[in-house]
Amino acid sequence: MTHKLDSFDRAILRALQQDASLSQRDLAERVGMSQNACWRRLQALRAAGIMQGQTLRLDRAAVELDLTVLVLIKTRHHSQEWLKSFRQIILSIPNIVDFYRIAGEYDYMLKVVARDMNAFDAIYRKMIEKIDIDTVTSYMAMEAIADNRPLPV
């Protein structure tokens, strides 16, 4: 079942992406709806799978995860068995916060957060000791200009 987004739905989604802690009353006021109508919209958006939980963004420096590394991986392996094992290993490392299969010269891209270069090196070593990888290229981010931006709904 697909849910066709209208202007109120989009306004709700934009507002909650900016601040998911808004009370129902504040959200309804912000989008120009009654509180009951807003509640029904929220329920419909959740039921349709458009809203998937609520999260909190942390200040990386405050939690001592100042280093962001983009890791590109190339492999010779493309079997389902290898992919299943690869996914399990990558997903078992909590510092890997984003994980994509990509098209182009490389096969996968990871976003890794770490305390510093030594911590990243430990994560890297954990990855390569458990996974047969052809090529790994890492890029250290110097500055997050735009990070975790809201989706343009």
Outline of this structure?
It is built from five helices and four strands, in the order αααβαββαβ.
Structure overview:
The protein has two domains: 7-48, Arc Repressor Mutant, subunit A, CATH 1.10.10; 61-141, Lrp/AsnC effector binding domain/regulation of amino acid metabolism (RAM) domain (Alpha-Beta Plaits, 2-Layer Sandwich), CATH 3.30.70.920. α1 crosses α2 (24-31) and α2 packs across α3 (35-47). A hairpin with a 6-residue loop joins β2 and β3 (108-114). The protein has a four-stranded antiparallel sheet. The relative contact order is 0.16. The protein is an alpha+beta fold. It has helices at residues 7-18, 24-31, 35-47, 80-91, 117-130; strands spanning 67-74, 96-101, 108-114, 135-140. One of its GO terms (cellular component) is cytosol. GO terms for molecular function: sequence-specific DNA binding. InterPro entries: ArsR-like_HTH (IPR011991), AsnC-type_HTH_dom (IPR000485), Dimeric_a/b-barrel (IPR011008), Tscrpt_reg_AsnC-like (IPR019888), Tscrpt_reg_AsnC/Lrp_C (IPR019887), Tscrpt_reg_HTH_AsnC-type_CS (IPR019885), WH-like_DNA-bd_sf (IPR036388), WH_DNA-bd_sf (IPR036390). This is Transcriptional regulator. It comes from Acetobacter cerevisiae.
Quickly list its features.
single chain; 153 residues; alpha+beta; Arc Repressor Mutant, subunit A; Alpha-Beta Plaits; 4-stranded antiparallel beta sheet; 18% strand; elongated
Instruction: List the quaternary state of the chains.
Output: single chain
pLDDT averaged residue by residue: 95
- Tell me the number of helical segments per DSSP (H or I, 4 or more residues long): 5
Low-confidence stretches: none
Major beta sheet, specifics? Answer: 4 strands, antiparallel
Briefly, what CATH class of the largest domain? Answer: Alpha Beta
The CATH architecture of the largest domain is 2-Layer Sandwich
Content-based structural category: alpha+beta
**Helix-residue proportion:** 25-40%
**Ends apart, CA distance between termini:** 19 Å
CATH topology-level fold name of the largest domain: Alpha-Beta Plaits
The CATH superfamily of the largest domain turns out to be Lrp/AsnC effector binding domain/regulation of amino acid metabolism (RAM) domain
Morphology: elongated
Domain count = 2
Following the backbone from N to C, one meets helices and strands in this order, namely HHHEHEEHE
C-alpha-based Rg, rounded: 20 Å
